[in-house]
Write the structure tokens for this entry.
Amino acid sequence: MRERQAIMVKKLPAKMLAAAVLTALLLSGCGSQEDAGTGESIEAKADAEEGFLVQNPEWEPIEQESGGAGAGGEAMQEGTADSGENGGADGEAQSGAAGEAGEREGQTKSLFGEAATMNNDVNGRELPIYCVDTEEKKVALSFDAGWGNEDTEKLLEILKNHNLKVTFFMTGEWVANYPDDVKAILQAGHDLGNHSENHKNMSQISDEDKKQELMKVHDKVKELTGYEMCLFRPPYGDYDNAVIDVAKECKYYTIQWDVDSLDWQNKGVESVITTVTEHKNLGNGSIILCHNGAEYTAEALDTLITRLQDMGYEIVPISELIYKEDFYMNFAGRQIKNED
């Protein structure tokens, strides 16, 4: 199986190569409560044809009173953009999934909150959610699904053994190619997240095309399972103000990450584990990025979960980590709850 996976990944140099270009550019904007103000400005743009991500001339640093710059539109490959909370799950409701998949009793569905109370603007820059401001020692684990399904069953088995729920972000192609996996992920109680229909650079297309990229895969999943997705991770991590605004109009929270496992680099099991557990940004409210198609992720997952738990972290899905309404963002992409 591993040999098949290695060949499969090599067929996607644009996705894997893009991440390598930006690895050194990962910002340190989130993580522990103490690190909240350490973000660095990264200007980004994706060269879709070659898969490389280069500096984005359209991005403007977010100036702080202290003279620092904010963490805005870093663009990362499916591996990095493809890369925690109130513990409450505000706005969640129990719902059965109808349609071809049939009714599922007790299924938790995350509902979109009141958009008027969501403030993603920081000095004119609309920011996605990189991490969450919380005193609870919780982190969210996420997997991007853009190619292959060889390890999906194993990932689900490990998560079941640990009694954990996580979040899977899926492209429209992946949903079409692996409908049974989509149903299995949902049946196991995990979040289904939107990773766009065609994995395009969202900031480079029209607002109408942005909407189509979101809603085509949304409709596929709804028809297949009856589930209404509300979590969106932009391909390559590429976004601008319009991407956040259109996503909100489509009743989606735009989600990034502050801890990249770098599993797409295929450096081995221990590399995946230590990259996450020793990451400078890891802290309360972190969102961790992994992939279901990387070579060593499934093999590393069991130990990764155990080490995070030994560090005192509770692992939750993104829908249970983020605030659904009454929030604002700081310059580093940290979601903060409005005080009553």
